[in-house]
Design a protein that fits this description.
single chain, alpha/beta, Rossmann fold, 2 domains, six-stranded parallel sheet
Length: 405
């Protein structure tokens, strides 16, 4: 294994709630323990900027360069503008400094620029160094379209993806969906990994202490819903399904952690008042230090999101504590649950089937539940944050990383 320190430029044009997980994973990856990592990112608020700065202060190998605050993103055009600005700033940095790797967290919105004929003129140093990054299914290549309009959009997406891959800008792309990776490789022989790593730390779980912290009894079956709370998360629909399904409500506790937007909070609290089971709502930002306790205390993580096909940090955190899972159909979460066998796949539009899935989980024997929990842990271990940087290395580079026997 090489001991010479590397210089890594980690470009994160749209800072988001999981960004620091990626930064931490890059710093702790096997073979990169001595790497000097420079993060270039934009933030939405002073609070986010302070969070990044606090993280930087505790990691001396990390340098952070903040771009201008961006506005809340409400559409694809805004994303493109943000990425274009970030790419131009990265291009300036590459003209002044040397980096061994240039890695973009989420590269989807780079694709239209790299598909244009003048891409090499706009971003010559990106092409010279070679971009590595994460390409997500829900933007990079759409799932099979069902309407004529979506079919046309899907054709455009595929054309953009093919042009971008053929441009020669990419050295290694990690894709979080097998089918999309297969289609992309069919367009052009570009080094795409079959499945990328969305990083997760495997915690030292103290389940009794975590459950005591939330006032949970040993016989309670705890569902956890986590993250920024809005209509996309399916929180209200899930509470209603649990309420309307004939299950032992006296055993059920729903633990909800995350900040809710005001209009949504009003409706959420109204539904909670109708629930015949216990609901614990923590309407606030959950710190990285407190986050593991929510999943250590839980039995099942609920990710029944609406119109969502990407991976989920919530699912991964739940899996790292051996939680069972309820996930929405269609997408990377369904793939994970079906492959590793640790939960139920549901749709918010089919409430009877959703309720049947709840009943099956609550009736599991201890032996079956233990087997499913082990499947969840296997899923999390395959995405251990210490493996994060390996998804961006070519087979030749990976070979050089192997320890000398």
């Amino acid at each position: 294994m090489t001991n010479s320190p590397r210089r890594v430029l980690l470009a994160d044009p749209l800072y988001h709630v999981h960004s620091i997980l990626h930064y931490r994973a890059a710093l702790g990856s096997v073979g990169f323990e001595n790497a000097q990592i420079t993060v270039v990112t934009s933030v939405l608020s002073d609070e986010e900027a302070q969070r990044v700065e606090t993280f930087r202060q505790s990691h001396p190998r990390l340098t952070v360069r903040l771009l201008e605050h961006h506005q809340p993103i409400t559409g694809r055009v805004q994303c493109w503008r943000c990425f274009y600005y970030a790419m131009r700033e990265v291009e300036k940095m590459l003209a002044q400094e040397h980096f061994d790797y240039v890695i973009y967290i989420m590269a989807d919105h780079m694709l239209p620029f790299l598909a244009l004929p003048m891409a090499r003129l706009w971003f010559p140093r990106h092409f010279a160094v070679g971009i590595r990054g994460l390409l997500f299914w829900h933007n990079g290549l759409r799932q099979t379209a069902t309407t004529s309009r979506r079919k046309r959009v899907e054709m455009l997406d595929r054309w953009i993806l093919g042009r971008a891959l053929r441009s020669g800008a990419f050295r290694r792309m990690a894709n979080l969906d097998r089918e999309s990776a297969r289609r992309a490789r069919a367009l052009e022989k570009t080094p795409l990994s079959v499945e990328g790593i969305d990083p997760v730390d495997i915690p030292e779980s103290d389940r009794p202490r975590a459950r005591a912290k939330f006032g949970l009894a040993p016989e309670d079956f705890v569902f956890v819903m986590f993250g920024a709370l809005d209509d996309r998360k399916g929180v209200i629909e899930t509470l209603e399904v649990i309420r309307d399904t004939p299950v032992p409500h006296e055993r059920i506790v729903v633990l909800i952690g995350g900040r809710a937007v005001p209009e949504f909070l009003t409706r959420l609290e109204a539904v909670i008042r109708t629930c015949p089971y216990r609901v614990v709502l923590h309407n606030r930002f959950i710190s990285d230090e407190d986050l593991p306790d929510y999943f250590a205390a839980a039995d099942c993580v609920v990710c029944a999101y609406r119109n969502f096909t990407a991976s989920s940090g919530v699912l991964l955190h739940g899996a790292s504590s051996g939680n069972l899972a309820i996930v929405s159909s269609g997408g990377v979460m369904e793939e994970a649950v079906r492959e590793f066998g640790f939960g139920e796949v549901v749709s918010l539009d089919d409430r009877p089937a959703f309720g049947a899935g709840l009943q099956r989980l609550l009736k599991l024997t201890p032996e079956v539940r233990a087997k499913m929990s082990e499947g969840a842990l296997a899923y999390a271990r395959a995405r251990d944050s210490r493996l994060y940087m390996t998804q961006f290395l070519t087979p030749e580079e990976l070979e050089r990383e192997k320890p000398v026997s």
